Here is the input.
Amino acid sequence: MKTRKTLYLGIATAVLAALLTACLSTQGTGGPGANDIAGVVTGPNGPVFLKMNHLAPETVSEIERILHTTERPSRGRFHAGRGTEYGEQLVEMAVSEIGLCSGHSASGVWINERGETTVPGLYAAGDMASVPHSYMLGAFTYGKICAASAIEYIGQAGMLGVDDGAVQAERQRIMAPLDRPTGIPPHLLEYKLRRQVNDYLQPPKSANRMKVGLEYFLRAHEELEQLGATDPHDLMRAAECAFIRDCAEMAARASLFREESRWGLYHCRQDYPEMDDVNWFVHVNLKRNETGEMQLFKRPVEPYVVTLDQEELRGYHQLRVASTAVEAVN
Amino acid sequence: MNPETTTKKVVAGKLKFETERAAAEAARLAPHRQTTKVFDVPVVVDEGKCISGCHVCVESCPVDCLAIQPEHGKAFMKFDDCWYCLACEVDCPTNAITVKIPFLVR
Here is the structure.
């Protein structure tokens, strides 16, 4: 059931993500410029519209069929309610809130080509694993790969004993909010966490803002201890709050660590506006160290399986180049 | 330097609290009570059509916001978590459910 929720979110942001990463050039000043989507949306010529009235009717109906069924079925009802016909009117676009983790960002659980995480016997598939923007196709493909790897692993692995103490401790941790019926309602903490993410981690990013955010995410540990729940639904939401907090801390730390700008607006650092392939053509990973704290490290990018034409890379490298420089190249 | 000893300032509610920090702590620990008013429940169930004992919509909902009223077995939106995905409306065998687009974005 949760998968469906994730998928909806995933595809809903895919269109925008594509727009943002494939966007035009910017001024190279580390902030949204007059020439990129984010700059145009907030600039004097904003907002930005999706134009479909030049498309063949069968193309428009195919777009509607996909967007209004697999993507978000209420989208058709939403547009119809406003009297917007894809084939006739322009559709307003906006920059959505940032993808905090996983497929809607440029991050995820680290896996190898067999779907294995760094924990033996644990696998991750889909856009929550380290294949951002793979969405459903990635989920299906890596689901199959993970299943094959897991079957192989189960064949060799012996049975593990159950640590009753660990089970008891985990049960206590999960159920704790039920002992605090007048505690903080989970939807409030979730709202607060997400608001802090939007206020302090939203690109364009700066170390000053992200450090303030990080300070709150650490303080939120105390607030998690005060969560209250009176039914299984809120107990679930309380558990989700802890995951959201973890993701927020990871996002803040990883974004602070990567002292360059990359991927258009995604990792646009005002204090490090240039892309730096010499130091940062790497993956940034987090792990838990011996004292339980998050530790950052670089992991090299493996050679591409498919050789890329330099001409194809040109558009990517011009993502954050001043418009005058682009004109000079052209 | 301890700010509480060096800055003796007026504390709101000074009859109860020595310091602003003690007042903040007491305020923080006061119990939470929800008064949020849900003014436009998006999942509307036609109880005349809803089948007692059926829970297809409850199972369909990806955010688990629907439940069954124990008194007569009809479905209702229990938690304000609806994503307007229409799964309940599409799956309901008697077309008893209508999902409204929230007024604020209509």
Notes: The domain at 43-105 of chain B is CATH 3.30.70.20 (Alpha-Beta Plaits). The interface with chain A takes residues 31-34, 59, 61-65, 78-81, 83-87, 90, 99, 101, 105-106 of chain B (CB under 8 Å).
